[in-house]
Amino acid sequence: MVSAAGDKFDRTDVDLTAGTGSGNQRLSFPGRYRLGVIDAEAVTPALTAGSGTNGTISSADFAQAASDDQSVSVVVDKLTASVSTYNAQIAETDGAVTVTGRAPGTNDVMITAIDERGSTVVRTVDADGDDFAREDIPLEPLAQGPIQLYVVSPGRDGRIGDRTRLPNGNPATVDGLSEYLATDATGDGKQVQDRLLSATTRPNASDDQVVSRTFRLTDAMISITRVGPANQSTAGMTPVSRGERLVIAGKTNRDPDQTALRVELTTAAGTPIVTDTLPKWETDGTYSTAFDTSGISPGTYTFVVSDGETTDRVTSRFVKPPNSTTVEPTQENTTRASRDSSPAANASLETPTQTSNGTLQESSSNQTNVHQPSTGLPSTVLAITAAVILILFGFIARLRVE
Fold first, then answer.
1. Sequence-ordered alpha helix ranges (H) in 169-210
2. DSSP state of 384
3. Ordered DSSP codes for 132-168
4. How many C-beta neighbours within 10 Å does residue 381 have?
5. Is the C-alpha dihedral spanning 89, 91, 92, 94 positive or negative?
6. Is the pTM of this model over 0.85?
7. Average of pLDDT values for 74-80?
8. How far apart (Å, rounded) are the C-alpha atoms in residues 298 and 242?
């Protein structure tokens, strides 16, 4: 019954399926219904067959009284859940997994994580208002390896399975199921999972909903997978020209809500040159950052990525830009240049002139040495050749005189 203030009344968050009253479970099933209100003064014991306000009333009597009604629909909404992992893993150092989701139509859900040995962690989570937001589920004492996580909703009837009791005698409620898994559902990982599903979704009349997710619990991990120019996507270590934009990228399974990554470029002696801090990265574990290398000298450097506990490091090189290199002369070019610049290469053979008495006389520029041409022949050969030429000229001159 609702009190009216003047000519208005208001009531919020009315749970029409709570309690064991007649008809209280009707809205637990999908379908179309009519929700009605009636003047309380018209609800007499005679009208409700002597049961007062807790009795029933016929449609005709309801329509004749001061009343109104509204059509409502009951639909089946799905349980949803997501698990925050990085590189499909949870680092044991982080110690917990974050679960978010929606559970329309129910007040509580159960979240449990099961390892291969059958150890479990169980939490009951308030889903009032449909959503359960960012629940951090501790993973201790689970062992490293594959972890199966389940989120269980009791469905529209608010009951686990299709009976009033669970296999260990606990009431078929979310709290009863949590205690059952924590204390009585024994065996290895697969056996515990089988007991969970047998108590919830497998019974024929059950409307429970279950969402499962898998991840791996393991050691903290950081790896550098790429160091190279920003305009290339090649994996591995690629030399970078000074002045190019440098990218460092890799993978980690750490949770950015628990730590940050520190990226350093150091000399071979370990002196930091450039540092950066990464507060966030992708859920697939991929991180990346970029550096300006214009002020870095060519050489070999070390790249370090660390979360304070786990570290990975690689070495790579900075090289001179292609347009900054100089062409050194080869030995052949050097030899040729030396020959071209020698006195012998610039000399010419003087032509002798004939005197009136028939003898040959060299010009005033005649010298005792004959200059070596640019052919590079030995000076002795050139001297002999010049002598032969002079003798021939003398012989020709003598013949003309005779």
1. 174-183, 189-199
2. H
3. EEEEEEE-TTPPSEEEEEEEEE-TTTT-STTSSB-TT
4. 11
5. negative
6. no
7. 83
8. 7
Which residue has tokens 């009707």? 26
CA distances from 234 to 248, 257, 302 (A): 12, 30, 19
pLDDT the model gives residue 135: 85
Cβ-in-10-Å burial (0-12, 13-18, 19+) of 380 comes to exposed
Q: Closest Cα partner for 40 from 29, 28, 54?
A: 54
Q: CA triplet 229, 232, 235: central angle to 5 degrees?
A: 95
The residue type found at 50 is G
3-state secondary structure of 289: strand
Phi, psi dihedral angles at 336 (to 5 degrees): -65, -40
Contact 228, 246 (CB under 8 A): yes
Name the packing angle between helices 174-183 and 189-199 (round to 10°): 160
Q: Strand pairing partners for 50?
A: none
Query: For 135-175, what is each residue's pLDDT tens digit?
Result: 899 999 999 999 999 999 998 778 899 989 999 999 999 99
Mark out the alpha helices in 267-340 (DSSP H runs). 331-340
Q: φ, ψ for residue 31 (rounded to 5)?
A: 155, -175
What distance in Å separates the CA atoms of residue 26 and residue 29, rounded to the nearest whole number? 6
299 within 8 A of 286, measured Cβ to Cβ: no
- What Rg value do the Cα atoms of the chain yield, rounded? 48
| DSSP-based helix, strand, coil % in the chain, nearest 5 | 20, 35, 45
- Please name the residues in contact with 299: beta carbons below 8 A apart, sequence gap of 6 or more: 267, 268, 317, 318
Name, in order, each residue with C-beta under 8 angstroms of 329's C-beta and a sequence gap of 6 or more: 337
Helix, strand or coil, per DSSP, at residue 62: helix
CB distance 305 to 262 below 8 Å? yes
Length of the chain equals: 402
Cα of 45 vs its chain's centroid, Å: 69
